[in-house]
Amino acid sequence: MANRGKKRRSGGSLQNSTKRRRAAAASWSDSLFCTMLEEAGFVLGGEGENELATEPALFQRKLAISIKRDPEPEQAVKSFCDGFSDYVNNPVRFRRSLQPTKSSGEVVAVHMEVDSLVRLLLGVDSLQPLIINSLLERLVEFMDEDSANDSEQQGIPQLILNQLRWLGCLVKGEELCEKLLELVGAASPATQQAIITALPEVLDDSQHQMATAKLMNLLQSNPSLTSSIIETLSNLNMDTDMEAEVLENAMGCVNSTSVNDLPAVIKFILQQANTHTSPQQVFLFPPSFP
Length: 290
Description:
Blueprint: H1 11-29, H2 32-40, E1 42-43, E2 51-52, H3 56-69, H4 73-87, H5 91-97, E3 100-103, E4 112-116, H6 117-122, H7 128-141, H8 145-148, H9 156-164, H10 173-184, H11 189-202, H12 208-221, H13 226-233, H14 240-252, H15 262-272, H16 279-282
Parallel strand pairs: 2-3
Antiparallel strand pairs: 1-2, 3-4
């Protein structure tokens, strides 16, 4: 994934970057991305807000049909998503695409806000995987400490993650789970916590077992994330065997848990204890337990 957050090292590089951005600005406006959006009823704002001139479900249906009827559907998806990437290459347009869209007065009696452009596109199954990949590539740009402290960039990681919450259908859920947890290793502490705590609302139930196993490994390798991981584990669905393994691991890390994280760990252990776990086992903490 490209790291656009790095500083330019020379005037030549800066000029090349400017040329690329100008070329991208020219390319998205006459791209398949722009054409298909307009035909489906979505108007991209220039300096103003984006506007939806039809019902959200009808927009998504029209867009899906346009792609399906294209002579080369797979190429149409790629071209559309390339145009989307060019469009959101501009920080202002990117932020706007993550925020609610204005609904045209032609659709309802008064103007109202509907889902963001990104959220609407994620509701089209054929587009979802590549749109998610584009979002995660952009997420990388905002994961370091400098970005976290930049007032213009603050809140972008959370906005990106919000697009992924409670989607009706995840086309490639396991792949998304893998990628999100890979990003945790390179993120700033705030973004690490945001990614981890978002998992229960992002992933389908079918990915919860996989996420649980990976979070338990992360708990062992990165104790600083204990509170976030424990909070997330308590909101994931898992089978009885996995519950027992998680409980055992949580009890095993009590002795090495920091004082600040200890209340969360103990609360989790007590909540996870069930009729299959004896009270003696639950409270059998290490001898050096504080």
